[in-house]
Specification:
Helix content is 40%, strand content 12%. By secondary structure, the chain is of the alpha+beta class. It folds into two domains: 8-92 and 114-187, no CATH class; 222-364, no CATH class. The strands form four sheets. Strands 1-2-7-4 form a four-stranded antiparallel sheet, sandwiched between helices. A three-stranded mixed sheet has the order 10-3-11. A hairpin with a 2-residue loop joins strand 8 and strand 9. Helix 1 packs antiparallel against helix 6 and helix 14 packs parallel to helix 16.
Length: 366
Amino acid sequence: MHGDIPTKDEQDWTALASDIKRWAAELGFDAVQIGDADLGPAAAQNLQAWLAADQHGEMDYMASHGLKRARPAELVPGTRRVISLRMNYRAPHALDSEAVLADGEAAFISRYALGRDYHKVLRNRLQKLAERIQAAGHALGYRAFVDSAPVMEVEAAVRAGLGWRGKHTLLLTREHGSMFFLGELFVSLPLPIDPPLVQEHCGRCSKCIDICPTRAIVAPYRVDARRCVSYLTIELKGSIPAEFRPLIGNRVYGCDDCQLVCPWNRFAVDSSEADFAVRNGLDAVSLVTLFGWSETEFNQRLAGTAIYRIGHERWLRNIAVGLGNAPSTPAVLASLQQRQDDPSELVREHVAWALQQHQARTASEP
């Protein structure tokens, strides 16, 4: 800037930033903000403390890039700005989450996973956004990220002014709560930076901490992944620790409790993205039905979804836990008994635990 008069270059970059936000909206994103590549020293310090406490569990990718995760310009050399975007995911007409959680014979699947794999949807749109920037005549170095890569996406979104970090560590906004996906485009362009959000709006509320079934939110803004139901049912490859199995209830893929109780999610908005519509009736399906799926059925029905990533074996492991916590109905018991000799040792172990739960429950009845 020279005084109060923007230079020609500054005018051009401001116009491009405006175009990027318009193009992002046309591609289905619900909000977009532009932040600096410098996430500040606190991001690296918090990451280091979390990793040092081993609270990332088996998620080695969280540690493999070291502090580069907190330093975008080191992770992707040449990065000058981080474009942070969000896309609402709540599927219209999905059965109420509370009703599913209250039904011990139903399978609860985190609402973000009811439709098409968000990694595919957002990555495709981010690629198209980058191509539009290039088509406008800009030599662009870029890299797109959607959750699976080592990026501190919430910190980047906060720095860009997209929202604030809730005590459950997810991004929150006053207008849409937290039921949305985040994506990032690291770019080499000197775009004008949007002001960060300076005020948080959680106040004294601790509902997300109090509701967590496994007490995974060990302090405000700190989650011990090793205790988190989402980690246990999605990221953990082996046996689910026995101490957590009764606490998981009927949550067979992920957990939304901390979001469902959050007052700001009264303002959550249904997604207009057709790809996030419910597939295979997963919003309201019984544990017994899902446990009966063969590997072929699992692959056919869940191809293209986020659930497909965990594979049939872990899917059955999770459902066995859910069935162990379910009412001791003839259908539940028969379903478990049919997989007592499953080829997978992992599945057999969790089926045996589930049957023991029912036997203990029956023995304690008057």
